[in-house]
User: Fold this.
Amino acid sequence: MRSMGLRKSVLFNLRRFFSFIKILFSNRKAAFGLIIILFFLFMALFPFLFTENTPLGKDPETGGPVGVKFCVPAWFRHLPTWLGGNPHLTENFRAFTDPGFPTIGENGEYRFETDANDLVKPYPDPNFGYPLTVPIKGLNEKNGSLAIKFVRPAGQSRGEVKAYVYRQFYYPYSGYPADFEGNVELFVNGSVHGKYLDVPVRLRFFVGVVEGERYYLWPPVYNNDTKYLGAVDALYGFNFTKGDVFVDRPKSGREMSRYWIISRASPMGASYIKDNQLVRISMGLRGVDSVITKIFSKNPGNYEYGVEITFLDSDFEDKNVWTTVYVDDLCLDLYGNSYGIMGTDHQGYDLFAQLVYGARISLYLGFAVSVMTVLIGLVVGLVAGFLGGIPDQILMRINDLMLCLPTLPLLIVLAAVIGHTIENLMIIMIFLGWNGFARVVRSMTLSLKERPFVEAARAVGAGTGHIIWRHIVPNVMSVVYVNLATSVPGAVTSEAALSWLGFYDPTRMSWGRILNNLSFQGGAAQAVVNPLWPILPGLCIALLASSFILLGYALDEILNPKLRIRR
Assistant:
């Protein structure tokens, strides 16, 4: 019998719940508000369905920018020019990545040229490749590298012998790339005299039009001028003179790279060339406008990128000598001036990914603050209103004191003092947000405790806790539901205001932080060039706040008997 009664109770409550949902969705305000809230909730729970980048808009594979800074949305390429479109915009383009096990020839990944076919031979070595500590997708996914071996038997030395290893690619855009980055890993070994190679090598890197001019780039090196860029010491046996890298010792890389000469201190390099002069040297090959327009002269067109290896065979004529240069992870990335749905910010991070993950922060903070402020206000209001006397006086004087405090200035001061994390902002907002609702609950409790049904409960011996829980609380729940909905917008807009002023959690992205980045890093010019940057975060804040307000009004119409009668 007891289980049957429980089953009937559960079924009854389920019918009531579904009946309430039906009534709720029949209200246009509630339906519109719920659809918006559910959309943002879905976006917050499943952000990976909208974007593959990290919450801060970084590339998940490299942990760095997804492109150059201040990219406009990629779909601007397809807009008419009178609407602000530009058909010459370019997008990120990976020309090629290392195939892991390279092949050579007209139909292979690598092309090879030399002025001494009898001395220099290329061959793929499947058992020797650059040992990436943390593999990057597309790079070195398979073992192996391309070996370029110079062998000269005893006899007359040959002087300078050149060999070229390169790859060709087709650049599909009609505009210039905004930036480019090359990568390569090299391992040099050979016959030695003492600590030095019998045949040292000189290395130069180039990009150019196929069957056109090759533009030579300085390779990445460590030196004293680049310590502030993260290059701490010189590579062992690695000399830098007049734009060339000269390797005169075997196994010339650093020990941490297992003696490979690496061009990538991080997946995104930092050196660049300006006015044909190398102004910074670090571990990447980068380009700037003055060089890019010269190199990428055919748009679209066929290009090549590779390394020139010069074997310096000037000594040891009466000795059999050899030097092998292993080439691995040869790849080239071209960065466009447009990216994704919303473009990139001042650091080259994806704005759309930031917008998507910003929904998670706004909903998390809004729901948490709303629930806690309503819960605290409910408890304080019930206690003060039902008990009266000294407890009422103490609680209401504390409430009056806190209501007199200026909310936004106090939020700013407390956020600056205790820290900018989301949890700290939540604590501050909860501390300052329960006061108004406590007064509403107190006034309702003062009225309810004088009602006949409460007097009847007292008459039959019901205690204070029983009366509050079974008689007072059910009668104030309609106000609780309405306040739960209407207090979320205040929390969302307060967080956005604080983040816009610079009091944001540095480890998380929110809509207010996106607006802060625009205001203090991009400026008005970027708002004109990329209007989605300010419009979409502001629109999301407004839509989310409005949806909860509409839901609150709808709940008030449904749950308030006076409004129901009036309808």
